[in-house]
Amino acid sequence: MALNLDMEFIVSAKPEKVMQLLTDPVLLRKWSGEDAIVEKEVGGRFEMFSGWVKGEILKTGKDELAYTWKTEEWNADAKPSQVHYKLAAHPEGTKVILHHEGLPNEDELKNHEESWEDQFFGLMEEYVLSTGFK
Predict the structure, then answer these.
(1) With helix as H, strand as E and coil as C, how does the chain read?
(2) How far apart are CA 28 and CA 48, in angstroms?
(3) pLDDT in tens, 17-40
(4) Cα(7)–Cα(113) distance, integer angstroms
(5) pLDDT band at 2 (very low <50, low <70, confident <90, very high)
């Protein structure tokens, strides 16, 4: 049974800057420390964390982004999950609403919940605060 995860984050940068941090491979590399590929069009390729996760762009927009997400550790027969972001201006920068649907099991749900907090948005916020990319 596939599981879903809904989270919200505040990033100390304007929505257009956060979208750049999510879609520009050079910026993704800077804040994550790993190689990334983002072909910013529907059907385009998405890779992050030096190929640990791969997917396909499902939707792009000024304040929305969605792509499929499958890590290299998942079974070959596991279906890709989907990650959806919705960005909204917030007094402290940007509120990011994350919906990650179709995680394959409870362990992956827990792992991803922690990783979105620490290894994704935590690193992104550190980058924004340390560089002034607002």
Answers:
(1) CCEEEEEEEEECCCHHHHHHHHHCHHHHHHHHCCCCEECCCCCCEEEECCCCEEEEEEEECCCEEEEEEEECCCCCCCCCEEEEEEEEEECCEEEEEEEEEEECCHHHHHHHHHHHHHHHHHHHHHHHHHHCCC
(2) 8
(3) 999 999 999 999 999 999 999 999
(4) 8
(5) confident
Identify whether the C-beta of residue 113 lies closer than 8 Å to the C-beta of residue 72: no
Between 45 and 2, where is the model more confident?
45
The answer to whether 29 and 122 have CB atoms below 8 angstroms apart is no
Cβ distance 8 to 95 under 8 Å? yes
The residues spanned by each domain of the chain are 3-131
Q: Long-range contact list for 130-133, CB < 8 A, 24+ apart?
A: 131/30, 133/13, 133/17, 133/21, 133/27
Dump pLDDT digits (tens) for 46-55: 999 999 999 9
The yes/no answer on whether domain 3-131 falls in CATH 1.10.10.10 is no
